[in-house]
Every structure is written in C-alpha cells, then in structure tokens.
Model the fold of this input.
Amino acid sequence: MEYYIENNDLKIKISSLVVSTVQDFFDAYIPSKKMQHLLIQNKWISIDYENVKRETAIQGKYLIINIYPYEHHYYHSSHKKLDIVYEDELFLIVNKPSGIIVHSDGQGDDNLSSIVATYYHDNNQLFYEANPIHRLDKNTSGLVMYSKSIVFQALLDQMLEKKMIRRTYLAYVFGKINKNTSFEIDKAIGKDRHNANKMVINPKGQKAITKVNSLGFSDRGYSILNCRLLTGRTHQIRVHLSSEGYPILNDDLYGRTSSLMKDMGLLAYKLAFFHPLKEEMTEVELELKGDFKRLYEEVVDD
Done:
C-alpha cells in the first residue's frame, strides 16, 4: 500500500481490487462502527480534502484520514526513561521492566502507560495515544505494544484477537526438560476463589492454550522454554507451567524463589504482526540482557 504521513493526515493511494468505496475501506481497516461515524461526521476522512460518503468511490485515488484527531494533555508525569524497541506511525513497542504495571491502578504510582505518555509529551507528540494493545503482569518483563492512533485502535485489538499479533515468551523454570521437547498445554483457567490475586486450572474457566518448546536445561536444575500464547488469559503461562510441574523462577504466586536470577524468569521477548499499512509481516525481538542473557547462554550456547 502506497502511503505517507503529512502533519496528522495519513494519505493512502487505494490500489486494492477489493477496496472500491469508503465503506469497503472501513470494513477492511476501521472495524469500529463508532469510529466510522466519527470519521464521516467530523470530516476526518476525505479525497483531496473533499467530503466523502460511505458509497464514494476511492479506487486509484488518495484517501486522506486524520489519524491523530485529539490532543492529550492530561497524564501522570514520570521521570523514568522509556526503553523503545520499535516505533513507526501506528506502533510503539517498548521494553517493560519487571516491577511496574502497564495501566494505572489509581494509586498515583508510575505505570508503563504514564511513562509512554510522558515520552509523547516531552517530544511534542501530544496527538499520539498511549493505549496498550496487550498487557504484561507486574513482575513480567519484556515487549508491550502500543497503538498511536485512536482511529486504528479497534483494528489492532481485532488483530490481537484473531492471532495476527503473535506473542512469544522465554520462561526460565525449575526442572529439567530435554532440548527440542515440545508440548501443548490446553487447560482452562479461572479465578481462585480463595485468593483474589491468583488464577487456577478450572475446567469451567476460560479456554487457555500455550505452546511450549524446550531450548534445553542446565545441570543447576532449570530449563528455558519458548512459550507462545494462543489465548491471552491472566497469568496464563505462569499457571500452565506450574500445573505441569515446571514453575517459573521467582514467581511469587505459582513458583518459589531462586538465587539464579533477580527478577521473575518470564520475558516477553518477541512480537510478530502483520502491519496493516506496510502490508507485510513485521517481527520485533528483544535483545537479552543481564540474568536473562547469562542463563540463556549457559543453556543454549553450552
């Protein structure tokens, strides 16, 4: 797709044979009915800045969309530095450290989204959203994807739901699992009735599937697992691995402490997604550092 950004406007040359009208474009890229209405009503969408209707033909023309329609001034200012791994017109992907939450919990403390909003503000990017497409637990570190444009927010949410955004984790667990051993954990997960902060395996809970492959084990009694989420339940990897007898190092809810590393041994290290504007697969992988790198090299590079 041929496109470019000018000020807050996304200009797209429509060349797809299946996108003939404004409504066709909406169906493919703007699944939110509310946003479709706002684009038309507020004249945020046009052809050469001429007003359009849903039935307006757009084949071979430049469609112009204001994809950053709002300024955002109100946020909880943070002095923490943002670790940016990938950034373009639609996406911001950052490395979340362990010990910080993604959303505000109302306590006024730092959270990842406030750090993102501060980054936008300090760089005069008040039109960008700070909306995470997915979450990580407080003590899980790694990649978190943000949507910059409220116009495309629903599309990115839909991409996650349809598995068009693939999330892969490294799990450092107690126990020895031979290299290249693969298995799938298909166990429903529900809330623990006795502990509001915990989840449990429950046949009546929500369907949860995790694909697991072992990268090998250390004689010191731990293994490193590559885990890919096919669903996105709260604490899914932590609960699933613990239920199989392989709790994650330093997991304070489902495992136990370990002197092998400082943080909890769960890292969201890879995101792969189909970029809706570039129309190609994009893969972002986190460079391993600290304890994650040291233990990885002990097992994988041994």
Observations:
- The chain has a mean pLDDT of 93.
